[in-house]
Amino acid sequence: MNIVLNTADGRTRALRNFLKNMLENKILYAVIAPVEINKKITGALVRSPELMDKADPLAPVMPVNMARIVSDITKSAPPSDGKKIGVLLRSCEARALIELVKLNQASLENIITIGIDCFGTYPIKIPETGAREACQMCEYPEAPNTDITIGLAGYENDSFIILQGNTADGDSLLESYGAGAAAAEQLKKREDAIESIRKERIAKRDDVFARYLGEITGLENLHNVFASCINCHNCRNACPVCYCRECLFDSPTFEWKADNYISLADKHGSIAVPRDRLLFHLTRLNHMAVSCVGCGACEEACPNGISVFSLFRLSGDRVQAAFNYIAGRSMDEPLPVTEFRENELESIGNQ
Amino acid sequence: MAGAEANEKNFEPVIIAFLCNWCTATAADLAGTMRMQYPVNIRPIRVMCSGTVDQVYVLKAFLSGADGVIIGGCKPGDCHYISGNYKARRRIHILKTIMETLGLEHDRIQVSWISAAEGKKFADIMTDFTDKIRGMGPSPVKVNGTAF
User: To 10 degrees, what angle do helices A277-288 and B55-63 make?
Assistant: First the structure.
């Protein structure tokens, strides 16, 4: 089912009032949303209805991928019955959450996912540069697989937006709000708008991929990309789907004795330090590319502005295509590394 | 590449071989018992299953200057742990796809299914792979003289 939400007083206020109503009527026990505190946008788990007035669901920034927060909050134990949490998610956040659930790193029990049409986000550090490249080339303006969709696209000149229920949970929540349903042409308007954004971004994506192939492929380019990497692993920490609770690269596995480093330098003439930077990124790529949703949080978190996103987005696309898998597309598709076919990939092992 | 060409005659590749305990490592033993030689370029590392070979170990060998990496496992359907080699196959496919995307020489990584009874096949494959890598020349892990 769907409802029309009047936005005569502004979209932000309409959404705040809607979420406030959900809290007041105990349909939702709490809401995870971006809020504005002291002129800064941050995420918050909001319990008190009046604090919903600080929510800013439309702020075009993503300080952290919320899928990561849902994982943090639910992985030990999901909310108890009667304490449903609503979570506002952009497309990349919703898709990352699907991957985390498949990886057993988040639970959707008693979680109501609320997807919101995304027009792109700006970098936190230098917003003047415009929407992030990750967003400009994201072919998923609409958050998939959510209980509720907040439809904004196409209604820029209207005084309403449309909330669509996609699951029984989503439907019953909207029913409780009790507003009128949308007309068919109103729904069509959004579908057309989404489709046109998607087309524009796919064209952009293909352009950018062609550029990446020139910029990041080959050992020399990789060296240039990672020469300023300081091994801080911020990209890993910001990545919504990097799922190991304990990372191999935080262990002493690759710590050598000085003589071992010297003998490697002996072999090559010289070895770049810090060691294992390319190893770290290539390993993370191998582990994460199948689940990469292309949110670009990795690059946002890099203190030296290394274009780590481009590697992930390009390789992620190729690896996912190799298994006919798309990260976040469906809860029912098993992760490629958790299953196999007896008759596949015949070229491997039979040289 | 001029340097590599000049060195071609003297170039002896270093090849890291991850060999499954139940099939390929046993085949290596059999090759020895049968007095068959395989190149000294091969540095075997016995692992319990090809399925334990995470991409990170292949990459570590590659980035530390190994000219080739070969992973030996049981034939599909014969894994001692039922499905380890099928999982290895997917993992290596991911690795090769990424290496190909990033313009790294994924041909330097090879998987071979060699059963415990195939001592001769083991020696042959190791010889062929060594020849192939020798033909490819040294692994290009260095940029302007520095290994990354």
Answer: 150
State the CB neighbour count (10 A cutoff) for residue A211.
12
Give phi and psi for B18, each to the nearest 5.
Answer: -95, 110
Looking at every residue in chain B, the average pLDDT score rounds to 93
For A211, the token pair is 């550029």
Chain centre distance of CA A93: 3
Phi-psi region of A256 (alpha: psi -120 to 50; beta: other; left: phi over 0): beta
Cβ-based neighbours of A128, under 8 Å, separated by 6 or more: none
User: Is B102 within 8 Å of A322 when comparing Cβ atoms?
Assistant: no
pLDDT tens by residue, A156-212: 999 999 999 999 999 999 999 988 999 999 999 999 999 999 999 999 999 999 999
Q: What is the CA A9 to chain-centroid distance, rounded?
A: 30
Nearest-Cα residue of chain B relative to residue A274: B148
pLDDT tens column, A16-47: 999 999 999 999 999 999 999 999 999 999 99
Contact across the interface for A268 and B94, Cβ inside 8 Å: no
Q: Does B94 touch chain A (CB under 8 A)?
A: yes
A286/B60 touch (CB, cutoff 8 Å), yes or no: no
ipTM greater than 0.90:
yes
Residues of B in contact with A322 (CB under 8 A): 93-94, 97
**Angle between helices A184-216 and A308-322 in degrees, nearest 10:** 110
Q: Measuring CA to CA, which residue among A29, A59, A28, A27 is closest to residue A43?
A: A59
For residue A150, the SS3 value is strand
CB-CB neighbors (< 8 A) of B110 in chain A: 351
Q: Please check the confidence at residue B6 and state whether its pLDDT lies above 60.
A: no
**A318 CA to chain B: closest CA distance, Å?**
7
pLDDT of residue B8: 53
Which chain A residues contact residue B73 at CB under 8 A? Answer: 349
User: Which residue in B has a C-alpha nearest to residue A315's C-alpha?
Assistant: B98
Task: Mark yes or no for CB contact B96/A348 under 8 Å.
Answer: yes
B108 touches chain A (CB under 8 A): no
What pLDDT was estimated at residue A199? 98
Q: Coil, helix or strand for A273?
A: coil
